[in-house]
Design a protein that fits this description.
Layout (H helix, E strand, L loop, with lengths): L6 H17 L5 H38 L2 E8 L2 E8 L4 H30 L7 H34 L14 H34 L1
Antiparallel strand pairs: 1-2
Helix pairs in contact: 2-3, 2-5, 3-4, 4-5
């Protein structure tokens, strides 16, 4: 009467309100946040995967270079001379070993930190400051690996072609095992450089979105 609802009417309308709340569509941050969380989770997995692959390639580059040594004989002006080649005889090869060791330490540290955060369900990159720090480290090590691979490539190319207008031969013919190990090490070095650059790009994407 007079626009007022009786208690019986209220009792009837309460179940309708409950049904509407249960069957109604949800909106707001709970729905819009799920795609963002999935995207961030995929980005975190990509970060951890890159760290793992970069660690493996850096270890391979270091292993092949550190085990590169061989003894043979070469012919110069008809004289057969014994030669012994080892990675430590070249400054460029020593530089590659040092840079690879530094990248291994960097990748291992970042892999342990990222994996622990991923297993706990938290973000691999918790803040923008840390994102900038990781970006700077990846960028620096990528350039270092590129310079180390380039320096080692120059020495290896000289060993394969010899020196023009001189009697110095192609040292990679008698020392083929040594040169093959050096070539594989350089290939893994450039691949590690590519992975570090990719990680830096992911950091830039993360900074632009979050």
């Amino acid at each position: 009467m007079n626009g007022r609802k009786t208690p019986s009417e209220v009792a009837i309308q309460l179940p309708e309100t409950k049904v509407a709340a249960d069957t109604g569509t949800m909106s707001g941050p709970l729905v819009t946040g799920r795609p963002g969380q999935k995207l961030r989770r995929r980005t975190d997995i990509a970060h951890v995967s890159l760290r793992l692959i970069c660690l493996v390639t850096s270890v391979m580059a270091l292993s092949f270079m550190a085990t590169a040594k061989e003894a043979a004989t070469v012919s110069i002006y008809g004289f057969h001379l014994p030669v012994y080649s080892k990675w430590s005889y070249s400054d460029s090869f020593e530089y590659l070993v040092g840079v690879s060791a530094a990248v291994i330490a960097h990748s291992l540290l970042q892999l342990l930190i990222s994996s622990s955060r991923l297993l706990r369900g938290s973000s691999v990159i918790p803040s923008r400051n840390q994102a900038w720090l990781i970006f700077a480290g990846d960028q620096a090590f990528a350039y270092a690996m590129m310079s180390a691979g380039s320096a080692a490539s120059g020495v290896t190319n000289l060993n394969r072609t010899g020196i023009r207008h001189s009697a110095l031969p192609n040292f990679c013919k008698p020392l083929h095992s040594f040169c093959d190990r050096i070539a594989v090490s350089i290939a893994f070095t450039f691949f590690s450089c590519f992975l570090l650059a990719t990680s830096a790009v992911l950091n830039v994407i993360w900074l632009s979105k979050y």
